[in-house]
Amino acid sequence: MKPSLRYRCRLYNKALIHPTPAWARLAAPPFALSEEMKTMSMPILLPEGALDEVDATVESFFSLVDAAIPGKVRWNTDGTDEVVNLYHALQYEGEVNNGGHDQYFHNQNGHTPVYVSALAGLRLIGALPYAELVEAMLSWAEDHPEETHGTLDSPVSPTLERLDERFFEISEERLVRKLVQEWLRRSPEVWAVPYDEFWATVFRYQGL
C-alpha cells in the first residue's frame, strides 16, 4: 500500500491528524475536490493540456512533487511510492543526460534509497534498458567501493563510461520522460486542472 501524503507530511507536523488527507486540505479552495479524489493517497494534479507535450508534463510533475512531498521524504524513500519513484526515474535521466552516470552517482552521494527508487520507477514505466544500467551501476559500486569515493573532478570509472555509451544508444522513442508521459496519461490518479488552479495549489503546498 502506498503511503498517504498525510504520512509524508509528518516530517512537518508529527501531530497531523485529520479525516481529510493533507494534500486535499492544502489544495482547496479554489480547487473543487470530488469525493473520489478525497479518498486517494495523492492525486497527481497537472495543468490542462500539459500531457500533450513531454516537456510540459515533466516540468509540471516536478513542480508538483517538489512542492507537495518534502525533500527528506524523497531522499529517504522506501521505494514503494510510485510518485516518488517516477520523480527519481526522471531525475536519473536528467542527471545522466547532463553529466553521465558519474555525475548522477556522486550527486546522490551514494545514497542507495534514491537509486533503488529510480530503479523502481524505471521498471514501473517499462524503461527496462535504463533499469539495467542502474542495476549495473549499483553492482559497480558494490564491487568497487574504492572507486565510489572520488569526486566529480576524479577520473571517471571506465565502467561508468561504458554505461554512458549504452545510455545514449537507447532509442529516443524509449526516453524516460516519454514513458513517464505515457504512464501519466493512463493513470486514474492524474487530474487535469486549469493552469491558474494548478499553480495556486503548488504555491499553497509551498506555503506561499
Automatic annotation (TrEMBL):
Record domain DNA mimic protein DMP19 C-terminal: where: 82-186
Keyword Membrane: no
Presence of keyword Signal: yes
Superkingdom of source: Bacteria
Pfam families in alphabetical order: DMP19
Keyword annotations of the record: Signal
Protein name according to UniProt: DUF4375 domain-containing protein
Source organism of this protein record: Sphingomonas populi
